[in-house]
Specification:
The structure is a homodimer.
Chain A: E1 2-7, H1 11-22, E2 27-33, H2 36-45, E3 50-54, H3 62-72, E4 77-82, H4 87-94, E5 100-103, H5 108-119, E6 124-125, H6 127-149, H7 156-166, H8 171-178, H9 182-196, H10 201-210
Chain B binds a DNA duplex through residues 153, 155-158, 170-172, 180-184, 186-191, 193, 199-201.
DNA sequence: TTAATTTTAGGGGGAAACCCTGGTTTTTCT
DNA sequence: AGAAAAACCAGGGTTTCCCCCTAAAATTAA
């Protein structure tokens, strides 16, 4: 029997979920909570397998609840339920221990499937959520590509020097490693400063990391 | 008619794909390529809607091909095909312009569905790949939390100094900005060097960027 | 084969960073 | 309230960085 705790501040919504789960074999509604604090309290004294957790609770955010649950009761699986299909919400929630993320417009069958899937140890995300995440993952390309375009060409040797600078080696150490003179390394760094429009080595490192110049 | 270019260095695999696509209505195999360079060449002089791209090509990586295609022929959609269901591969590929990612063990029907989906402008990922990405997205919690844990506490003031160092300001400039003495700033940097186990400002910047200390 | 770029190298000088030690005041935690 | 941590300040000494300049050899592109 899967013990489910429903956590949402909208009574009507909780009622709806409960009525779905009540008639379902193998699933039992262990309790209902209307805020984050009571979720933490409830799991302390009750056996709960899955928390159906609204991401937007009045007192604390669902993310905070996830974090605390993951710390104190890692065996309790969190299935996040949210009205918002936004990348920041989704990834934040997942990054704090939720095993699944479904939207509030999810139908009865999908809700049951999600609960059973998460209970089995796997993860579940509704189709829309999956798309959102993929989109977010892909859109990071634009920013990185754009900045790569207007980035001056860095020669092979300069890149080597740049890498070693980022690894905290001094000019002398870099010279020894590359079997070249200290003055040569200084030339390279000087050229790098000009090319990357940096004022010092700290900037060199920041710019090269931000633009993935060391890959 | 969807013009498809198959790019893979394994002849047998290309043959297999081709035989599937040949009997399919609305899909035409525009050409076959066995390395990345010829893909770039081919799209220059042929109409291609979709490139079925093996991520592991002999001469250049599929990621490189994606990048170049996105730059020169953004209308050509890349559907990545790979033997490896690994997070780094998948996200790298998607971040460089691929519209989909399927595995080589994908069946005939799913392949066709993927092609048609990508052609329609949407994205397609096989179920396994989706799971991998989700796992990867979730597992960043562990690494980030872990690194934050064994990362010494950085005071509010130190963080301010650290930010300004990363923004390439000199000690004197930082002192002026924060209305404190030059020597104080040096103290803070010195403490930061010790705390973050860095040898110089370059390392300070690298470590703080790698561990998201400036957020 | 020129032309351009890259890589190499050097002198000299000033600024900044780094290291060490010491101290006071303020904030934070218990 | 007392202890601990953080923030503040400072001097002197050493190293490293950064900048200006020049310039030859090697590689690459036109």
């Amino acid at each position: 029997m899967i013990q489910v705790l429903i956590a949402d501040d909208h009574t009507m919504f909780v009622d709806g979920i409960e009525s779905i789960l009540l008639v379902e074999d193998g699933i039992h509604v262990a309790g209902r909570c209307y805020d984050g604090a009571s979720v933490i309290e409830f799991v302390k004294s009750n056996k709960v397998d899955i928390v159906l957790l609204d991401v937007n609770l009045p007192d604390m955010s669902g993310i905070e609840v996830c974090k605390q649950l993951a710390a104190s009761h890692p065996e309790v699986k969190v299935l996040a339920i949210s009205m918002y299909n936004e990348e920041s919400y989704v990834s934040e929630t997942l990054n704090h221990g939720a095993r699944g993320y479904i939207l509030k417009n999810t139908g009865r069958d999908e809700l049951l499937k999600a609960i059973r899937t998460v209970y089995s140890g796997a993860t579940y995300f509704s189709k829309d959520v999956t798309e959102t995440i993929m989109k977010g993952l892909m859109n990071r390309r634009k920013s990185s590509t754009k900045s790569t375009v207007d980035m001056p060409k860095i020669s092979r040797r300069e890149k080597e020097v740049l890498k070693l600078i980022a690894e905290e080696f001094t000019t002398q150490e870099i010279a020894d490693k590359l079997f070249i003179s200290l003055k040569t390394v200084e030339s390279h760094r000087s050229n790098l400063l000009a090319k990357l429009n940096a004022r010092n080595s700290a900037g060199l490192v920041r710019i090269s990391l931000e633009n993935h110049l060391l890959d």
